[in-house]
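Slide 14.
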Amino acid sequence: MRSTALPVCRPRSLSQAIRAAMLCLPLATVGVAPMALAQSIEQQTERTYDIPAGSLSTALSRFAGEAGVMLSVDGRLVDNRQSSGLHGQYGVAEGFDTLLRGSGLRAVRDQRGAYLLVPAPSGEQAEAVELKPMVVEGFALGNALGAMEGYNATHSSVATKTSMPLAETSQTVSVVTRQQIEDQGSRSIAQAVRYTPGLMSSPYGATTRYDYVAMRGITDGAVDNLYLDGQKLLGDSGTYSSLQVDPYFIERIDILKGPSSVLYGRSLPGGLVAMTSKKPQYETRRQIRLSYGSEDNKQAAFDFTGPLDDERIAYRLVGVARDADNQVDGIEEQRYAVMPSLSIDFSEDTRLTLQAMLQHDPESGYHGGLPADGTVTSHNGQRISRSFFEGDEDYEKFERDQQMIGYQLEHRFNDTVSARQNFQYLDSTVESGQVYQYGYATQDELVRYYTGADEVLHAWTLDNQLQFLFDTGALSHTLVTGLDYQRRKAKVDYSAATGVGTTNPYSGAANPSSFAFYHQYDELRELEQTGLYVQDLISLGKWRFSLGARQDWVDVSFEQTESMYGDQADQSKLEQFTGRVGVLYAFDNGLSPYASYSESFNPNATGAYNYDSGTGAYDITLLDPTEGEQYELGLKYQPLGTDDLYTISYFDLKQSNLANKDSNESFYRAVGELTSKGVEVEARLRPHDNLNVIASYTYMDVEYSRDFTGAAGVNNRGNTPNAVARNMASLWTDYRFEQGSLAGLQVGGGVRYFGKSWADAENMLRIPSYTLYDAMLGYDLSRVGLDGLSAQLNLNNLTDEKYVAACNSLNQCYYGEARNVMATLTYDF
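Slide 15: predicted structure.
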């Protein structure tokens, strides 16, 4: 198979030549080396399986995932059917035959190499049976990434980069499905994950500009943990150039808790949020959706997919347009986005999926804060209104354009070896300007400043993977090896202004003075990472072992010119080794206790300003990378014959090398440390065919475990970081009526609790706990003769609770979302 030359394969220096050779070698040998490796491993068409008795649907899904094959199923064929399980060594065809024995069904392989479930033949004509598949899965990833129905995913690839049953993954993974996103009316990725344990998805309140997801008490860099189709969204958390993907483009969201550098390279220790975009389907489906709601929120969206050429080529075109006001006066949100994709099956073993995304956000909503005095507590007996805008409409601007192109290439050489290559290029421009407050200038007036920036971001990632399925004696191996590369370049033209004047949040009166604009600096920020990783997933009877190791080479640099501090530049080169180990035992009764250890690192791409009091000059240096490590113990339970999953986990997480400045020093050191210990409980169950339940509880004990100096030289050792609650809990349930006079009606509701948190790292002021209620009501209008039409009403914060979601400091606190309503009309045809 011919590979395509990529820009990364054209080195301009010796170091780049070495890295380019490492990256391009798998591309050049993709058609030869795996075959040679496959021949060196004894050709094995059989694997060892240990699938317990239970639901036929669950058994087939698990078998397809472990065998690395596609399986298309009409759910009506397997409803309420049971399987006696599968134990021992089997080939793919033999395994399907054994699982389906006595069911009146059989699995046949089509021209694309996928397996279709059809009624057992009464004659030879059965080979021509055609069914519209409900689910179509990927090659070597099994059903870990495909479209699915309901709330309960059974497999995920986020923790292992290959299909793995959630019940047998030795790390905490939560999955938000497409149906959950739609039923809950999520208007952002952050909203979509709000019912997941261990997460704080609104550390900046009701803002919709970015998808902030703080996990397991790690609140710094909360936009640096987002992934799309297995690739890191290479925004720059030190600038305004952080990318955002509309939730209408997303098929599912997999949330991995804890450090994950062994497979993904640099990452935050709290975990990551992996989005899977909607992919082309070989069944024609079309959808048009219109929505209208609070704050004059208007949205139109469409989703078209189907085959183009005899089921060898399929397309998908998804688009969304939105225009809305905001709960803050004078603020607007606008978005125009489209995501086209094309899937080409060159053969039954080779598939290429091409993707693009074009998004224009002329207005990106509110992203400001207010002081704790007047929001968390009353100021002279008064509270600041949620609708108060402390900025200046004449200078408020945030216009973002972002584009993405990429592909996923999959090839299966045989039943033993498969290869995958994922590529993604991102481009973003941002023009921003904001007048913001920072505390009281007088008794009732807030002092205001201005910042603005013009930014350009270019980033690309490439991930090459080889997967081997083989046995050595009694051990069954799924070996994944990979070489990935990522590069990011951000150019920033940053400006500021003084003399903005004051504003009174209680009377609304503003006292502007003349702006004194000045150019603060131009900055070039670059990051380059190459990583080599290997992972072996081993099965021995009911034991599951996971071993992983990775070596990274990272270059980080920045250069400031025309700076008020003088021209500055620094570069950091580092090599980092990370590992992961896990063990799990899968009992026959569905219980699976596990333990794991994992590591992470994240380079510090932001320079620390160090002031020399002797010379009066500033020096900017890059600090050592932060490092993370986690021990986790847990128990998972999947009742036999169901897709329900109950998980309880205990974690002990540490993040070290936090930037710290002692009160007696004028420079920063990477000596700070944070520890987070806690328990997470999650239950996803369907006690009745028409009833879904999601419940979660989180307990966290988070503190600065080493000296960490904050504002006014206060030592924060032993304190809890801001935006972290000790207790969180949530419950969501919905029910769909199928019979009687209420047939076609769907009702749902949820409650979210966030406990007390600190407004500041010095732990001087507590934010009260809050409880929020959500509700939904839907109706299938085909029940009254309007085929394809459905209507839905979503209400968030039903009781209109006025609350502060979190604070970044005593001067920057963020109101949560006010009560809002959204009505949606959907037409499927």
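Speaker note: The first helix runs from residue 14 to 29.
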